[in-house]
Amino acid sequence: MRTIWHRLRPAPELIVPQKFNRNSHTVTSLMPAEDxxxxxxxxxxRQIGLETLAASRLLDFGCVVxxxxxxxxxxxxxxxxxxxxxxxEMIDFLRxxxxxxxxxxxxxxxxxxxxxPSGRPLSCETEFHFARMxxxxxxxxx
Length: 142
Ligand SMILES: C[S@@+](CC[C@H](N)C(=O)[O-])C[C@H]1O[C@@H](n2cnc3c(N)ncnc32)[C@H](O)[C@@H]1O
Prior knowledge:
Elements: H1 4-8, H2 25-28, H3 33-47, E1 57-61, H4 66-73, E2 80-85, H5 88-97, E3 103-107, E4 127-128, E5 133-134
Parallel strand pairs: 1-2, 2-3
Antiparallel strand pairs: 4-5
S-adenosylmethionine binds next to strand 2.
């Protein structure tokens, strides 16, 4: 039975078709995506010692939809959010569904053996055009 709280909650801003949910059943069976996303963001915020993410620029590599759902539907203050993923159809969906100027999404055709086996291998020469910043050796995560 739905509680009165659920009935009073504002309607979700971002409703995501099931086909764009790429988390495993072990994750999705625990709680709705926006709840686990909000929980993770809150933990991250505490971990780095911030009172709020209102002034933070969040880069979400391998993003899918979870953190967008959490930020928008739970009204979590954020400076900006950039989601990167190789799943082009999902990024197209986000671009059309999210009209919030703080949000941007990028398709990156980077290789992953399971998710994107035909993609290009990431290297220190990979350029992130959206950031106008090549991942040069000094910035390369090894
Ligand atoms: C298990 S999902 C996790 C989604 C999200 N981080 C979350 O916590 O809900 C992994 C996502 O990473 C993306 N991904 C995996 N390898 C990638 C790569 N090399 N480049 C870009 N995206 C990648 C996949 O397309 C997939 O959507």
